[in-house]
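COMPLEX REQUEST
Ligand: iron/sulfur cluster
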Amino acid sequence: EEGERTERIEAALEELGDDVVILGHNYQRREIVEHADFVGDSYQLSKEAANADAEYVIFGGVTFMAESADIITDDDQTVILPSMEASCPMAGMAEALQVDSAWAEITAAAPDEEIIPITYMNSYADLKAFCASQGGLVCTSSNAHRAFEYAFDRGDKVLFLPDKHLGENTAHRLGMQDRIAEWDPWDPDGKDAEEVAESDIILWDGYCQVHERFREDHIEDVREDHPDAKVVVHPECRREVVEAADVVGSTSTICETIETADPGDTWAIGTEIHLTNHLQRWHPDVEVLPLCGDACMDCNAMRQIDPNYLTWVLEELVEGRERNVIEVAPEEKDLAELALDRMLEI
Ligand code: 13P
Ligand code: SF4
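STATUS: Structure written out below.
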C-alpha cells in the first residue's frame, strides 16, 4: 500500500510541478520527510518559507509552524496543512487573552520598568502579534539566547512564553539563572504579580509534554548500559536533564551532532522519537539510541500529518481544490510578521 500511495503522491507532484513545495519538520513521519523538498528545524523552516517561490507551501508540521509560514510568505502564496488536528499542546498553553490579563498585572507591579515579552515560535499568531506590539519578538530553540540579548538591550525585564524549560535553560546559558521567577496562570496559590516582578526573567508556566518526560535517571541508565555513549537533548527538556547531557540544542543541532559523529560513536538522543529514528536510518555508522527506550516519546501533534492526508491535499490541488488552508487573520498578520522579522534579523 505504501508503494501505491507513493506513486500517487509522486504523480500529483509531477502534475503540480513548481507550483508546490513541501516543507517538513524533523519530527515528521518518514513517509512525509521522504517527500519533503526541505527538512529542518523550526527556524530553518521559517527561512525556507520566506524564500519559497511556489504558489502552494504544503507544511509537514504543526499549526503554529504553518501559521508562521503564512505570515512570512507573500499574499499570493497559500499554505496548506495536511491535517487540521496537528496542534502543539504547548502553543495552547499561552492564550493571548490570558497573557493580556497577566501582562496587565505584571506591568502594573513594575511601573517604572520596561518589560519585553518574548514568545517561543511554539505559539499562535495572536500572541506573536501581542509581543511585537510591546516591543518584543519571537525566538526558536536555536536563537532564544539572542532574543534575550535583544530584549535586555532594550528593556529591564523579560516575560518569556510559553516554555518555562527553554526559558530557564536560556537564562542559565546567559548566566542569569538567579534572576528567574515563574508565573503560573493556573495556580491561585502561585506567586503574585508583585513577587514575580522582582525578578528580571519571568517564565510562563508552559511546557512540552513530550520533552518534559525525559528524566535525569534516563541519562544515568543509558550511561550505565553504554559507558561510551554521549547524550544530546533538546532545550525543551527539564533543567536537570540538560545539565546531565553532553550537548543541548535545537533539532538541527541534534542532526549536526550525529552528522559529525565518528563511525562507531554512540549517541543517545533526548527528543521526539521520529527524529531519533530518522537519525538511525540516515547514519547507520553511528549507534543512535533513544534516550528513553521504553517510553515512546512520540509527539501526537506531529504524528497527525498522516501520509494519506498528504496524498489527499495534493490530489485535491491537482483537481483545483484547496483543502486545509492556513490563513492568519489580517488584523494579526502585520504585527506577527514584525515579531518574526525581528527574530530573522537577530
Ligand atoms: P526545533 O525548533 O528545535 O525544531 O523544535 C521545535 C519543536 O517543536 C520542538 O519540540
Ligand atoms: Fe509541541 Fe512538544 Fe510536539 Fe514540539 S514536540 S510540537 S513542543 S508537543
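REMARKS: The two ends are 46 Å apart (CA to CA). The longest strand covers residues 20-25.
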